[in-house]
Integrator complex subunit 15 isoform X1
Amino acid sequence: MGDIRQSLLPRDVLSAAKELLYHLDIYICNLVQSGRQPPQVDAKTLELVEEFILHAPKDRNAPARKMSALQELQLLEIMCSCFQEQSRDTVRQLMFSALFHIQGNQADESRMVLLGKLVSMAVAVGRVPILECAATWLQRTHRVYCVRLAQVLVDDYCSMVPGSVPTLQNIHSMSPRFCCQFITAVSTLYDLSSEELVPPLELLQMIVSWIQEDPRLVLITFLNTPLSGSQPISSLDVTPLGSLVRWCVKAPLAYRNEKKQVLANRSADSEPDPRPLFSALHLSVLQVFMLLPNVLNEKGLFGRLALLQMESVAALTSDLSRLLDQADKHAHTSAAGAQVPPQLALDRLAQALQVAMASGALLCSREDLRPICSRLPHNNLLQLVLSGPVMYYNNIHTPPLAYSPHAAHSPIASHAPLPTRSPHTPLTSHAQYPAQPFMSGMPFAFRPGH
């Protein structure tokens, strides 16, 4: 495609971009039809994309070509139509990659700005092919860029335009794959490490409602991704379970002060207390863990693949220890109930560890956990989990993967299952751990009122 550059130079910026998209579509269609494996867009074509769509000047001394706001809107509409009209998913995915794959150069900033605007428009106008391509992009891209894209959507639909949250909520039905990746990205972004990194209430309500409606939503990426071992360190986790556990455990401490019970610039009178939402989320996450034994057994992965990493648990306990130290220092500002949030956080940690080990999501022994939890204050439930009972309860009654009271409408039903692997295929370096027991006769200390 390098020979079309001279024909694009005299054109105005919008016309040149539109013409290049047209030629790019034809070029990728021919590339796919040629049967070349893997089909790969050549470097000269990528340079044309950067010059005429992302407007990165070929010559550093040349002035950058810029679009007006109206021209940019027209380009986004053209791109939406281009992806919508292309019926072959392979072509769409290659085209999306040619436009937005992070190259590690000066064009990446323009690439991210355009991507954020395109995906935001796709959400607004219901362009499912773009959301499906964006889901794949989120799976393959460094997490730093993934959380940037998530931040754009949160800003657009939860902050800037009042009443636009239902539009974003529709991604659950439009593209469950994108919805799952979006949950993973935002739960990575908002780590509750500061007041600014607490998820907006509208976002929290949305995520809780999604998972309550279908707990298996957060497993879609895992179910539809051939796993060869471990995910690249730089990518998003294959499920958001680790990040959601972190939300639930840290929430009682992040909201321990009245000023943190409401979002910035909003009054306590107009904003509901978010703590019950975190309680509901905690219960939903435990229900997702309860689904895993059947899921992992069906795939031959039980005891061989950890969906909750020990590194994530260690980081969480370290954060929790620090937050509890801070809570101790401020305990005098509260009355006798000052210890409720710390104990609730520890209860939730104990419950999550207990259920994750029993379900095969966390591959470790109690001996592995004890040093990690050694700095935490005493908590009865946590102590029971770490010491372990004598009796095992391995008969975990969970519905099979295909079962759902709404199976016909389940988003997972529309996706191909994870390919079955040989039982001898090495997947991870983890030792095979047995399912860890539940506490015999020990109910969860779940307190929905807190």
Q: What stands out?
A: The mean pLDDT is 82. The first helix runs from residue 5 to 8.
